[in-house]
From TrEMBL:
Signal peptide: none annotated. Residues 3-91 form the Pyrroline-5-carboxylate reductase catalytic N-terminal domain. PANTHER family: DUDULIN-RELATED (PTHR14239), REDUCTASE (PTHR14239:SF10). The keyword Oxidoreductase applies. InterPro entries: NAD(P)-bd_dom_sf, P5C_Rdtase_cat_N, STEAP_metalloreductase. This is NADPH-dependent F420 reductase. The keyword Oxidoreductase applies. Keywords: Oxidoreductase. It comes from the Bacteria.
Length: 199
């Protein structure tokens, strides 16, 4: 399975640290050229590989760690999304609900990526918390997941486990997805909830 993180700001780098900590190789890309990402990637670890956006978008599993407004550009750049797993780590804070047609923000992204198997995840924690070791307080830090494709959600849950976190399913995007997204200028109730699952 090949992985890519699209977006290499605070959240993208926090996710890259989770991959590096567990030795899982991941490609990173943004609108900037790969050489601009190389210093941060090297500082994070040898399994973090900067690549051109087009190359990164060919991965089997793609994590969107981009500003929400950038998703149409990424949708066009990605070509054929059929069958690929996309993890939506974006937040649509400040986007009026009318602009989304009353849909959860992840549904809007899913509709822009025809054929993609979209799962909402990794978006509810601040980057600094996400970058830290998920083991602590006798358990593992929770990552909430929601999606409409059970198989894709299971694959993402396995990745979450591999990265040392504890996946907690919230159901479909229209249900659980609403618990971990912004609505206009209001955060949903599970945003910023740093929870631990005990083993």
């Amino acid at each position: 399975m090949s992985y890519a993180i699209i977006g290499f700001g605070a959240v993208g780098q926090a996710l890259a640290r989770a991959f590096a900590r567990t030795g899982v190789a991941v490609t990173v890309a943004s609108r900037r050229p790969p050489e601009a990402l190389a210093p941060q990637a090297r500082a994070i670890g040898p399994t973090i590989a900067p690549r051109p956006l087009r190359d990164a978008l060919a991965a089997e599993t793609i994590i969107l760690a981009i500003p929400f407004a950038a998703y149409p550009e990424i949708a066009k750049a990605g070509g054929d999304w059929q069958g690929r797993i996309v993890i939506d780590a974006t937040n649509a804070f400040g986007v009026p609900s009318e602009e989304l047609g009353g849909r959860p923000s992840s549904v809007a992204i899913a509709q822009a990526l025809p054929g993609a198997r979209l799962v909402k995840g990794f978006n509810h924690l601040p980057a600094g918390v996400l970058a830290s070791d998920p083991a602590g307080h006798g358990g593992r830090r929770v990552v909430f997941l929601s999606g409409d494709d059970d198989g894709a959600t299971a694959r993402v849950a396995a990745l979450v486990e591999r990265l040392g976190f504890a996946p907690v399913g919230l159901g479909r995007l229209e249900e659980g997805g609403l618990l971990v997204q912004a609505r206009g200028h209001t955060w949903a109730p599970l945003i910023f909830q740093d929870l631990v699952k005990f083993t």
